[in-house]
Design a protein that fits this description.
This protein is an alpha+beta fold. 17% of the residues lie in helices and 42% in strands. The protein contains 2 helices and 5 strands. The chain has a 3-stranded antiparallel beta sheet with strand order 2-1-5.
C-alpha cells in the first residue's frame, strides 16, 4: 500500500448478522460494516459493551461470537 499515509489507522466496527433459517454456515451468520472510529480505545470499549451470541441464538455459531468486533484498516487519504 505504500507509506503515503504515514501508517494512520481507522478502526472498522462490524456488527453480527444472523439468519438461523439458512442451511449453510456462511449464509447463517457473519459480520457487516457498522461504523468506524480513529480511536482503538473507543472501538474496543464499544465492542466490549455488546452482547455475546451462542449456539442458542443460531445453530451455526460454535462457542461464542461477539455482537460487535473491530479491526484496524489503513486510512486512505
Amino acid at each position: 500500500m505504500g507509506n503515503q499515509n504515514d501508517g494512520k489507522l481507522v478502526y472498522l466496527i462490524e456488527k453480527i448478522w444472523i439468519d438461523s433459517m439458512e442451511n449453510e454456515v456462511s449464509a447463517a451468520v457473519g459480520y457487516k460494516p457498522f461504523g468506524f472510529t480513529p480511536s482503538e480505545e473507543v472501538a474496543k470499549r464499544f465492542c466490549d459493551a455488546g452482547k455475546t451470541y451462542t449456539e442458542k441464538d443460531c445453530w451455526a455459531i460454535r462457542n461464542t461470537m461477539p455482537e460487535y468486533r473491530y479491526k484496524p484498516l489503513e486510512q486512505i487519504e
